[in-house]
Amino acid sequence: MDDRNREQKKQNSIIQGTSEAAHIPEKIPTVVTTVDPRSNEEDLLSALYPFGQMIKKSGVVAFPTETVYGLGASALDPKGIEKIFIAKGRPSDNPLIVHITRTEEVFDLVESVPEKGIQLMKAFWPGPLTMIFKKRKIIPDIVTAGGDTVALRMPDHPVAKALIELSGVPLVAPSANASGKPSPTMARHVWEDLEGKIHGIIDGGSCAVGIESTVIDMTEEPPVLLRPGGITQRMIQAVIGPIERDDQLDEIDRGNSGDEKSELPGKVRSPGMKYTHYAPRAKVLILRGKRKKVIEKVLELEKTYRESGKKVGIITVDENLKEYEKLYGEIRDQACHQACDIKENKGLSPGAEDVSNSPCIRSLGSEKEVEKMAANLFAILRDFDQTEVKIILAEALEDREMGYAIMNRLSKAAGQNILYVDEEDRS
């Protein structure tokens, strides 16, 4: 078998989930560097130079974007890309997003760009918007899970842009977490999941948006929203007119997709559409309905779980905290921190009251600042993993604008496990 046929067979086997390619050692040195994204371009390029070299040698590097931390490899290097799938434990039929720094690169990677695509690039690039186009042959099949379309994004983060420039090629960059876990918004989240499995981590601080990019399929007319994110449906429609929303979105977000472990058939057009994502170790239950009834049900369920010996986490908003404080007082943060200390065998501080069995109550933020809620979601889910919480009760947000994007992620974290406290609310 000649080298070309062997390489093609390797790529096909990766796509089918039966890789014959070289295996990453069980433990490899993971280099970590902290950089200030506000540094001047020259200093950033100097600090990140070693990581660009890693990528040129088929290495895998985690880096911050404005959405979440991404796990980068050359989009033109199947060997490097396979290492991403291995490190994350990511299913090989889950496509990747290609990240670029200049709009002219798009035309080297895709067959054509419709006028509406050009309009969206001008309006939202660089930024948290991913667009899908018909791909050129230069894009390896491993990037697109064997499909004929490719997803492109231009990140708006100084570190991401500098790393792509240093690498000299577009980068694939799925979220830098173990597959299925909450996406990382801080470098320590990446370390917790992938230390010893990847070559480098660039710590550039917290991610501003906090949830993955919006994904829209530009190969359809009208274009189809596949994943909500920081660029909302209303913002897109203000630029290009009406768009459609993929049917799967409403089914998942309303909890109507049946078995939480079921997989949607056929080719997947966008990351995040087929498999359960963003899940902490604890079971997540979303409660939908009128505010007063939701809070009453949360309190009822918390008492039931606590009496059965299961510690509960509660996700709420600032406006509802006072309702929980009536019952639990000012102990919500103490309960979370103390549970974490006990789990790590640190014990109680001298004279401290044992509140470790109290619920861990965390607020996403104020309903008046939904964008900040999005930035907090994954960090809160990961914080619960550091406690003994077994059940997370999450209040549903309104399904509009960024609230819709947050609920998409929360519904996936819950495996579409939704309780309607008002039956008439279910539709």
Report on this structure.
It is a single chain. Mean pLDDT is 86; it is low at 1-5, 7-22, 257-268 and 337-355. This protein has 15 helices and 16 strands. It starts with a helix and ends in a 7-residue tail after the last strand. With 427 residues, it is α/β, with parallel strands linked by helices. An 11-stranded mixed β-sheet has the order 1-8-2-3-7-4-6-5-9-10-11, with helices on both faces. Helices cover 36% and strands 15% of the residues. It folds into 2 domains: 3-253, DHBP synthase, CATH 3.90.870; 283-425, 3-Layer(aba) Sandwich (Rossmann fold), CATH 3.40.50.11030.
The biggest sheet, with number of strands, parallel, antiparallel or mixed sense and barrel status, is:
11 strands, mixed
Strand content: 15-25%
Main CATH class of the largest domain: Alpha Beta
Widest sheet: strand ordering:
1-8-2-3-7-4-6-5-9-10-11
Instruction: Please give the number of β-strands.
Output: 16
Any idea what the shape is? globular
What's the CATH H-level superfamily name of the largest domain? Answer: DHBP synthase
CATH architecture classification name of the largest domain: Alpha-Beta Complex
CATH topology (level 3) name of the largest domain? DHBP synthase
**Number of contiguous helices:** 15
- Measured on Cα atoms, how large is the radius of gyration? 22 Å
Distance between the termini: 57 Å
